[in-house]
Write a structure and sequence with these properties.
single chain, alpha/beta, Rossmann fold, Hypothetical protein af1432, 2 domains, 5 strands, elongated
Length: 331
C-alpha cells in the first residue's frame, strides 16, 4: 500500500463475528485505509487506547464488553474522547439507538451493511477527525508558546498550572457550566500569551515601568485575544484573556470595564492570578503567607480593584481543600 493510501486513516474494526471482521477489513483496505481488528470489546478498548485511531466501528453485541460499554469508556477519557465511533448493530429499536446516543456514539450503521453507506460515513467522519486533530495541534502550539513565555521568568515557574487548578476549582464550586470550567483551564495557561508581543527589556524589567513601557505592556491582553481568536474552540477563553486585567472601578485595561461589565470567568482568573502573584517569591519581596495574601487582596478590593465576593469564595475553598492548600504551600 502506498504512503498516499496510508494517509486516508486508521480504522478500528471490532466484531466477534470473524466473517464480519474480514468483510469490513477487506472493504476498507481496498479503499486505502489501514485497519486494526479486535474480536471483543475489551480488546477494542485496548487498541483504541494504545495507538492513534481515526475511527472505530464497533459491533454492539460483543463478549467481554459491549459496543455501548466501549463507546462510553472511550468518550470518558481525554485521550480518546474525540475519536469518532460508529456503532454497528442489527438492533433497530428506539431504545437501543437512545442508549448509543447516551454512550456518546457519533453515528450508527445497521446490518446488513451497505458498502456505499459504510464508505460514505467513514470518509465523512475521518475528515472530521482530521479537522479536530488540526485544532488540537493549534491549541498545543499556543500552549507551548504560552509556557515558553512563562519560562523566561524564573519567578513564574508553575504559575500557569496553578492558575488552571485554582480557577477551575473555584468555578466548579460556584456551579459554573462545564464549558466555562474548560475555558478557565485553558485560560490559566494562555491568559498572558499576548506578552509574546512585549519586548523582553520591558517584560523582564526588575523595576517600575515608565509611562511608555506601561502602555506597551497594557496591550498584551488584546494581543493575546487576537492570537487565539482563530480557534473557534477558544470562544469562551477569549473574554478571559482580554479582560483579566480589568478592575472593578474601571481603572484596569484594556477596555476600562467596571464591576459587572467584567465577565465572571475573567474575574475568577483575575482573583487567582493576583493571589498566586502574592504567594510566590518575587525579586522585590518574599512570598506572602495565605493569611497575608488575603489581607492584601481585601485591602485592594476596598480600593475598588477586585471582586470581594470572589475573594471570600476563594479563601473559603482553599481552607476547605487540603489538596489546593498544599499546592499553594509548594509554590
Amino acid at each position: 500500500m502506498s504512503e498516499i493510501e496510508m494517509e486516508k486513516g486508521t480504522i478500528l474494526v471490532a466484531d466477534d463475528n470473524q466473517d464480519m471482521r474480514e468483510l469490513l477489513t477487506k472493504l476498507l483496505r481496498v479503499n486505502g485505509y489501514r485497519v486494526i481488528v479486535a474480536e471483543d470489546g475489551a480488546r477494542a478498548l485496548e487498541e483504541i487506547s494504545a495507538q492513534p485511531v481515526d475511527l472505530a466501528l464497533l459491533d454492539v453485541m460483543m463478549p467481554r464488553r459491549t459496543g455501548f460499554s466501549v463507546c462510553r469508556a472511550a468518550k470518558s477519557r481525554d485521550e480518546t474522547r474525540l475519536i469518532p465511533i460508529v456503532l454497528v448493530t442489527s438492533l433497530g429499536s428506539a431504545e437501543d439507538r437512545m442508549q448509543g446516543i447516551e454512550a456518546g456514539a457519533d453515528d450508527f450503521l445497521c446490518k446488513p451493511i451497505r458498502k456505499e453507506e459504510l464508505l460514505a460515513r467513514v470518509r465523512s467522519l475521518v475528515r472530521l477527525k482530521r479537522y479536530t486533530d488540526e485544532l488540537e495541534n493549534a491549541e498545543t502550539v499556543l500552549c507551548t508558546l504560552a509556557r515558553s513565555i512563562e519560562a523566561k521568568d524564573p519567578y513564574t515557574e508553575g504559575h500557569c498550572d496553578r492558575l488552571s487548578r485554582y480557577s477551575v476549582a473555584l468555578a466548579d464550586r460556584m456551579g459554573l457550566p462545564a464549558e466555562q470550567c474548560v475555558a478557565l483551564r485553558r485560560a490559566g495557561v494562555v491568559h498572558d500569551i499576548g506578552k509574546v508581543a512585549v519586548p523582553e527589556n520591558i517584560l523582564l524589567k526588575p523595576g517600575p515601568l515608565d509611562a511608555e513601557e506601561r502602555r506597551v505592556m497594557e496591550q498584551h491582553p488584546a494581543a493575546g485575544e487576537r492570537i487565539c481568536a482563530p480557534l473557534k474552540t477558544f470562544r469562551y477563553v477569549l473574554p478571559i484573556i482580554r479582560h483579566h486585567h480589568e478592575k472593578q472601578d474601571g481603572s484596569g485595561y484594556p477596555d476600562h470595564q467596571k464591576a459587572g461589565e467584567i465577565p465572571l470567568t475573567a474575574r475568577i482568573l483575575q482573583t487567582t492570578d493576583v493571589f498566586d502573584a502574592l504567594t510566590t517569591n518575587r525579586p522585590y519581596r518574599r512570598a506572602l503567607s495565605l493569611e497575608q495574601a488575603f489581607h492584601t487582596l481585601r485591602e485592594e478590593a476596598g480600593r475598588g480593584w477586585w471582586d470581594a465576593a470572589l475573594i471570600d469564595a476563594f479563601e473559603s475553598m482553599l481552607h476547605a481543600s487540603p489538596q489546593l492548600s498544599a499546592a499553594h504551600a509548594a509554590s
